[in-house]
Each structure stands twice: as structure tokens, then as C-alpha cells.
Design goal:
Elements lengths: L24 H8 L9 H17 L13 E2 L8 E2 L7 H25 L3 H26 L3 H24 L3 H29 L10 E4 L5 E8 L6 H7 L12 E6 L9 E5 L3 E2 L14 H4 E4 L5 E3 L1 H7 L14
Antiparallel strand pairs: 1-2, 3-4, 3-7, 4-5, 5-6, 8-9
Length: 332
């Protein structure tokens, strides 16, 4: 996912305010807070005031020990083990959001440089933004199964060729080679089936929740806001083992959501990756207060139902339509 982003794509000139390739992209954000950018978009001005707070809460290397634990019995099939909300904490999802911030900030810097007629700096920033966007698109294609269909097709062609080679080996009584090719074909068939299933899951995904919607965790009870979604679980096998995803009613083959957790309910969790089985939608309108350091960058504000309105770039990232609040005839 974002972790695989090449550091070379995050290198820009010193004048642009972006540091060199020897620093991680997390440090890019730390340096950015030192440079104030004037912009018509208030969200990006607030970025430089809030980034330090975001990193203190989001960086696992400086997180203090959790002093608030929400113990709850695991209510899924076969569950006799107690887990807390931290089991669904996702640094991968957090980094995905932070790199999205980085893209927004680069775009703002490009526009500011153009407004100031600093065309050389604007071009350098635009080139860097293009590199980052291309790399993120590649990662999204892998994550969301866009490349799985082509991989399945490539494997199918390879299988056809190997079957012809195996038949030739049998005809020439080279049974050792034939057995080796048979095993290779079996392995490729399993990989092709998995790739096809993943591509199909992404193409036919049906989500019960939408971007910006307020949700409540069924088990741990905290309030959250949806800021990202995947048709299936895209976390690592170790994360799924810790979260005991296999004990969910629908396992890992269901939509999973990146959610921002209200800091007043759990100030250490920040971003969680939660299965659809674990989420509930409160009865609207839910106008309860919701605070999170990322909220002003991902959403314009709250709508009449108490949900949040995602920025255009976030909707484009997940290819989701705008959500319109139905007009109440009495209010009209």
C-alpha cells in the first residue's frame, strides 16, 4: 500500500519546502509545519497548525502507552477471547490518509507558486505531484484488484503454454519433466483463481456505509466517521490474526472501512480499520460533537443529517458519488 511508496517520488527542491530523499515522507510533514502557505482554502492553512498534533497522535514510535482500554468479549463465532479497540488500529490506513494530505498540500503549493509567479518552483512541484499521484494510482490498482484481472489473464495464457509443454513431455516419455510441469500448472491455477476472485469482489462490491457517514462500533461502542473503504480486507495477515478477522461472520471477504475515531472517546486509536460486520449507523440526525485532527482536511463540514461532506478529492479517490440530503417538504 502506501508503505511501498518510493522515497524518490517524495524528493523536491529545497525552495519548494520539501526535504531530500534521505528523510522519510513522515518527516516531510514535520518540515511543512514550519512553512506557512497563504491559500484561499482554509483547510490547507490549518494543516500547518495541526500537523504536529497529528504526528504526536499518529506516530507509533511516540505514542504513549494506552491508559484507556475498552475491554469487551468477542461476540463472534468461536469467540472466547477478550480484545480491545486497539486490535483494529491500522498504521497502514493512517499512512494512506497522510499521503493523501501530502498530495493535497503539494497541489496547494503549486497553486500558490503560480499565484506568486514563481513558475520554476511551480513546475518542480507539479512534476513531484505527478510522480506521487502516478505511484499512488499504481498502488491503488494493486490494492483494489484492478490489476488482478490482467494477472489472472496472464496466468491463464501461461497455463495453456505449460499444458502444451507437459503433453510434449509425456509424448516423449519425459515423466520427470511432466510431473514438474503438472505441479507448476496446479500452483498457477490456484493463483489465477485467487486473482479472479479478488477482481470480481472489487467489481461487484456493495457498501452499506458511505464516505463521511457517522458510524458506531458494535462491540467497543465508539463513534467514528468513514473516510475510506475496501471491498475486502487489505491488511496484512498478521494484522488480520491480531484482529481475529477469521472469527467475523463474513470473515475477510466483506467491505472494510477506514474510520476516524472521535478523540474524546479514544484519543489514542486515531484511525481504525473496521469490518462492515462491526459497524452500525446511528439513527439520523446525529448532530453530536465529533472531533478529530484529520476531519478538516477530509471533509467540508457537517450536513443536515449530522454526517460529514467529503472533499472532492476524497470522493474521486474512492470513485464515490456525492450524497445528497433529501429535501423535507415541511422544511421547504
Amino acid at each position: 500500500m502506501v508503505q511501498g511508496l518510493s522515497l524518490s517520488t517524495l524528493t523536491a527542491s529545497r525552495n519548494s519546502g520539501v526535504c531530500g530523499p534521505t528523510l522519510s515522507w513522515r518527516k516531510h510533514f514535520k518540515l511543512m509545519k514550519k512553512t506557512y502557505i497563504t491559500s484561499a482554502n482554509e483547510r490547507h492553512c490549518v494543516w500547518h497548525q495541526c500537523v504536529k498534533s497529528m504526528f504526536l497522535k499518529g506516530n507509533p514510535s511516540i505514542l504513549r502507552q494506552r491508559d484507556m482500554r475498552v475491554e469487551a468479549g468477542w461476540l463472534f463465532k468461536g469467540g472466547d477471547q477478550e480484545l480491545d479497540a486497539s486490535s483494529e488500529k491500522s498504521e497502514t490506513a493512517n499512512e494512506d490518509i497522510l499521503i493523501f494530505f501530502f498530495q493535497l498540500d503539494l497541489a496547494t503549493r503549486v497553486q500558490y507558486a503560480l499565484n506568486m509567479e514563481q513558475y520554476e518552483i511551480a513546475q518542480q512541484l507539479r512534476n513531484k505531484l505527478t510522480e506521487v499521484e502516478e505511484e499512488v494510482i499504481k498502488q491503488q490498482e494493486v490494492k483494489r484488484g484492478s490489476s488482478s484481472k490482467s494477472k489472472a489473464q496472464d496466468k491463464a495464457i501461461t497455463i495453456i503454454r505449460l499444458r502444451a509443454d507437459m503433453q510434449n513431455a509425456i509424448d516423449s516419455e519425459n515423466y520427470g519433466l511432466a510431473a514438474k510441469l503438472r505441479d507448476e500448472i496446479s500452483e498457477l491455477e490456484a493463483e489465477s483463481l485467487a486473482a479472479s476472485a479478488k477482481a470480481l469482489a472489487y467489481e461487484n462490491a456493495q457498501y452499506s456505509f458511505r464516505l463521511g457517514q457517522k458510524v458506531k462500533h458494535k462491540i467497543f461502542g465508539y463513534q467514528a466517521v468513514v473516510c475510506g473503504m475496501d471491498p475486502v480486507c487489505c491488511e496484512s495477515s498478521s494484522w488480520m490474526e491480531t484482529a481475529q478477522v477469521e472469527k467475523l461472520p463474513r470473515g475477510s471477504t466483506q467491505p472494510f472501512y477506514q474510520v476516524l475515531v472521535d478523540v474524546h472517546e479514544d484519543p489514542n486509536l486515531l484511525v481504525a480499520y473496521v469490518a462492515e460486520d462491526n459497524l452500525l449507523a446511528p439513527e439520523p440526525p446525529n448532530m453530536n460533537r465529533f472531533d478529530h485532527p484529520y476531519i478538516s482536511f477530509l471533509f467540508y463540514g457537517m450536513d443536515a443529517a449530522g454526517d460529514f461532506i467529503p472533499v472532492k478529492q476524497l470522493r474521486e479517490k474512492y470513485n464515490r458519488p456525492r450524497h445528497e440530503i433529501p429535501i423535507d417538504p415541511e422544511d421547504e
